[in-house]
Design brief:
- About 35% of the residues lie in helices and about 15% in strands.
- The chain is of the alpha+beta class.
- The strands form two sheets. Strands 1, 2, 4, 5 and 6 form a five-stranded antiparallel sheet that branches. Strands 3-7 form a two-stranded antiparallel sheet.
- The protein has seven helices and seven strands; from the N terminus they run αβαβααααβαββββ.
- A hairpin with an 8-residue loop joins strand 4 and strand 5.
- The structure holds 2-acetamido-2-deoxy-beta-D-glucopyranose (2 copies).
- One 2-acetamido-2-deoxy-beta-D-glucopyranose binds next to loops.
């Protein structure tokens, strides 16, 4: 009797364990996060932050498998990042997904993103492996070129005049026809929050979907600053969307 009970308990434990494993690897959609290097470096205190030569525009932060409850991470620890696998696209990655922390190795950002998010994305055949995962991300960066989208409606980086957050959000939402997520960082040296990252949400067919409201939104001000690159000549017209 006791024996059957023990066996039943073991089976139950196994069932719970496999359910947990399945839950850990499951995901419904992808968050594609891009960052604005001038703002990332302006607010970075812990690490030396340098924008590599040749880098301009918005750069990739990551492509993150997500579901309603959150996002799975580190799904396959036996799949280490293999630098040789991304050699065919290394030039594009250096420009579009650069590591801004100059004291860390060139590959460390990609390695981190692969282990934390890429190994979870790999459960989808279209993202299985480093080359597919990073290659798809580069494609998405070209498809959702935020600099171009913002420029098209008159938003140019501008140090001294802020933009109305709602205008920036509406301009992107109208062009993409889906809800996006904007995030800021707060830095004492600047009066307004700095526009730091913009996320779009993508389904498993790689079509754009609405980002859910609860995904982080951290621009707690009506105005935001879209900081120019350090060497960028500011346009005299910049910031003209200030009411
Ligand atoms: C984990 O990674 C290893 C090494 O690439 C691979 O052989 C294995 O199929 C992966 N496991 C899962 C569940 O994807
Ligand atoms: C906005 O959030 C930042 C960081 O959380 C905080 O330091 C700042 O005081 C907040 N500003 C307002 C206007 O709530």
């Amino acid at each position: 009797m006791k024996d059957i009970f023990t066996k039943a308990l073991i089976v139950l434990k196994l069932l719970i364990f496999s359910a947990l494993v399945a839950a850990k690897e499951g995901w419904d959609f992808l968050v594609f996060a891009q960052q604005w290097p001038p703002a990332v470096c302006a607010t970075q205190k812990k690490q030396k932050c340098v924008i590599p030569e040749g880098v301009d525009g918005w750069t990739i932060h990551g492509l993150w498998p997500t579901d309603k409850k959150g996002y799975p991470t580190f799904c396959n620890n036996s799949w280490p990042f293999e630098p040789s696998s991304i050699q065919p696209i290394i030039d594009a990655l250096k420009l579009k997904w650069p590591n801004l922390f100059s004291k860390t190795s060139e590959y460390s950002f990609w390695k981190h993103e692969w282990k934390k998010h890429g190994t979870c994305a790999a459960s989808d055949d279209q993202l299985k492996g480093e080359l597919k995962y990073f290659g798809k991300s580069i494609e998405l960066r070209d498809e959702y070129n935020l600099y171009a989208l913002l420029q098209k409606v008159g938003f140019f980086p501008c140090k001294d005049k802020p933009f109305v957050l709602k205008y920036v959000e509406n301009a992107l939402t109208l062009q993409l026809n889906k809800k996006i997520k904007i995030a800021c960082t707060h830095e004492k040296a600047y009066q307004y929050p700095l526009l730091t990252s913009i996320n779009v949400c993508i389904d498993k067919n790689f079509d754009l979907i609405d980002c859910e409201d609860k995904l982080v939104q951290s621009c707690n001000s009506s105005f935001i600053t879209y900081l120019p690159y350090p060497d960028e000549k500011e346009l005299t017209e910049c910031g003209c969307m200030l009411m």
